[in-house]
Amino acid sequence: MPNLLHLDSSADTATSRSRAITASFADAWRSLDDDHTVTRRDLHVDQLPHLSDPALHWPARLRLPGAAPDPAAEALQAELIAELTAADVVVVGAPLYNYTVPSTLKAWLDNVHLPGVTAPFDGDDQQPMLGRPLLIATSRGGSYDVGSPTEGWDHAVPVLEQILGSTLGMVVEVIAVNLTLSGQIPMPDGARERAERELSEALVAAADAARRLG
Ligand SMILES: Cc1cc2nc3c(=O)[nH]c(=O)nc-3n(C[C@H](O)[C@H](O)[C@H](O)COP(=O)(O)O)c2cc1C
Q1: Sign of the dihedral through C-alpha 99, 101, 102, 103
Q2: What is the spatial distance between Cα 76 and Cα 108, in angstroms, rounded to a whole number?
Q3: Whose CA is nearest to atom 12 of ligand 1?
């Protein structure tokens, strides 16, 4: 039973573009056949607490003596890790907020990145997500084109690529839409057209990716 973990983090539950793209992926995944299941976690609607104790970054055997993180926080973390490792494919909606990921998504990252459990540290078989596909659907109010003055200002995709790709070992694809604020604030000629074109293309690309990865 191929299982998709569908994550969203946009605070906009009505017109979000990252949510539209992840939904396109999840709908296409469900349409493949009844065996294709979806586990849904909306990180904005059901917000996770921030990590309450640095000991939670480590499994019990690697913690400092005397560490005693809250058992409820540990149980939640175990649930999040089990949910992740039960996923054959992950799709994550990641809007750009203050040049990085929403704090709701960061709280999830802080919970699931554990050296020696989900990331290599001191032994073999410590990368349960190795080789599994991850689609990042990112939406940005502005644009961060190569060669433009804002190139490199997007710190959301790089941190996801680092943690979930390089560290946890997932195979990352990115679908990005830009200039999403062109309907709200003044922007140069052609911005709205580009934004709408990118969204249309992204919805198709997400559905195609689900069919390819499923
Ligand atoms: C708190 C907040 C911070 C934002 N910071 C940025 C930013 O740093 N750069 C940017 O291009 N857009 C920024 N935006 C605009 C969002 O990236 C844009 O609206 C995007 O489409 C949100 O994703 P969504 O459509 O999935 O909700 C910000 C929006 C919010 C709500």
Answers
A1: negative
A2: 11
A3: 141
Q: Contact, 19 vs 12, CB < 8 A?
A: yes
166 is written with which tokens? 């390089």
Residue nearest to atom 28 of ligand 1 (CA): 97
Tokens representing residue 49 in the block = 């607490």
Amino acid at 146: V
pTM given for the model: 0.98
Tens digits of residue pLDDT in 55-76: 999 999 999 999 999 999 999 9
Residue nearest ligand 1's atom 24 by CA:
16
Output the CATH code of domain 3-213.
3.40.50.360
Q: Which amino acid is at 190?
A: G
Question: Which of these, 46, 45, 64, 44, lies nearest to 54 by C-alpha position?
Answer: 64
| Residue 12: CA count within 13 A, CB half-sphere | 17
